[in-house]
Amino acid sequence: MISNIKTQATNNLVAIANKFTQTGEVIDVRPFGSGNINDTFLVVLNSEQNRFVLQRINTHVFCQPQLVMQNMRIFTEHVSKRLLNNPLNRRWEVPRVLLTRDGHDYCNDANNSFWRAISFIEASESFDTMHDIEQAREIGYALGTFHNLISDLPPQKLADTLEGFHITPLYLNHYNEVLATSTPVSTPEVNYCLQFIEKRQTWAPVLEHAKATGQLPLRLMHGDPKINNVMFDTSTKKAVSVIDLDTVKPGLVHYDIGDCLRSGCNPAGEETENWESITFDTDICQGILQGYLTVAKEFLTENDYIYMYDAIRLIAFELGLRFFADYLAGNVYFKVKHPEHNLTRALVQFKLTESIETQETMIRKIIQDVK
Ligand code: GN1
Ligand code: MG
Q1: Closest CA to 257 of 307, 320, 321
Q2: Which of 132, 175, 234, 354 is most buried as measured by Cβ atoms within 10 A of its Cβ?
Q3: How far is the CA of 36 from the centre of ligand 1 (A)?
């Protein structure tokens, strides 16, 4: 019975994948990557265009998935044009939206799931944790290049596909609401999280305040530039692409800087169970920022530098807050492998925030020096 159900599911996947092929037949569809929201598969074909990425979009998170696709197409068109007119002096690729045989950028299946396909960046790989400083510089270069290539696309051209994304005060409101209706078991770990958040409530609006008062401009951002969303050429070991374009939309580049650093400077990775030993690596931080600034210097202002430290601290804290609130709410947003998964993830981010805070002077000095 179970194997029948499995065969049925595989047949469905193959049928959906086939809708996105222009030539050739699908010979394999397998789960791919470690996304927390969407379901991702790698499709293998028996033709020249030999593989692509197939994704079922989580429509509880992205309520208007057509707008996500619209943003992606505006983004890729803009960047491709720019690269054609002003080629970089090294390999750089932009993931392409693949169309169905009848020319649409998505399709629905019988269960009304939303499916879309994206080109696979050939001869490339990604990493969950940083290997060395050279890789850190490449990650920074990749984010800088990403920002640079959209710095002349007006933010209003893209839709807000995920309202409230990275707006920390809204995550705090949500957390306070969840807390009011739940009775968390009082364990040392849960109490640590509760107190950790409590102490930082008044500081949490720091970036939103800077945005509202015009100190930080609204720009286009990636939204999720964590370390494993940067692809590296398998032979040259250079960064060649930033993938996962679902959250490219108006925001602050600071959300991206914070997200890139909170993921890149955590040598144990965000999925470790060993949360007590988490530290923020300032050498990697310096490497990422050096790489970033080789490309980003031209569009950053003095205020952008002033808020960099807060961004690094805030996005680690914010992700911890999001994980912890989801744990309290019964794991309704992030996919989990076990009921305590989001609690452990929150502890990792809070320990990372703590390590950032104790190294504030050093991190601020790095920002000053790389400027
Ligand atoms: C989610 O699904 P994934 O892994 O691409 C989340 C990010 C978090 C990340 C933490 C839309 O991204 O904000 O930083 O998990 N994406 C969304 O790993 O909420
Ligand atoms: Mg993502």
Answers
A1: 307
A2: 175
A3: 6
Which atom of ligand 1 is the closest one to the Cα of 223? 13
Q: What residue owns the CA closest to ligand 1's atom 5?
A: 35
Say whether both 115 and 137 belong to one domain: no
Count of residues in the chain: 371
125 within some domain: no
Domain boundary among 120, 150, 178: 120
Residue at 313 is within a domain: yes
Please give the model's pTM, rounded to 2 decimal places: 0.97
Number of separate domains in the chain: 2
Q: Are 251 and 221 in contact (CB under 8 A)?
A: yes
The CB of 271 under 6 Å from ligand 1? The reply is no
Q: Which atom of ligand 1 is nearest to the CA of 246?
A: 11
The reported pLDDT for the residue numbered 352 is 99
Ligand 1 geometric centre to CA of 284 (Å): 22
Q: Residues 6 or more apart from 79 whose CB is under 8 A from it?
A: 94, 149, 150
Q: Which residues of the chain have pLDDT under 50?
A: none
Which run of H or E residues covers position 249? strand 249-251
Domain residues for the domain of 242 are 133-370
Q: What is the pLDDT of residues 75-131, one digit of tens each?
A: 999 999 999 999 999 999 999 999 999 999 999 999 999 999 999 999 999 999 999
User: What's the pLDDT score for residue 258?
Assistant: 98
State residue 308's pLDDT score.
98
Beta-ladder partners of 118: 53, 97
**Which pLDDT value is given to residue 4?**
67
347: Cβ contacts below 8 Å, ≥ 6 apart: 189, 192, 193, 275, 320
Ligand 1 within 6 A of CB of 35 = yes
Check if 37 has its Cβ closer than 6 Å to any atom of ligand 1: yes
Q: Are residues 109 and 138 in the same domain?
A: no
- Same domain for 277 and 150, yes or no, is yes
Q: Does some domain include residue 10?
A: yes
Atom of ligand 1 minimally distant from the CA of 165:
19
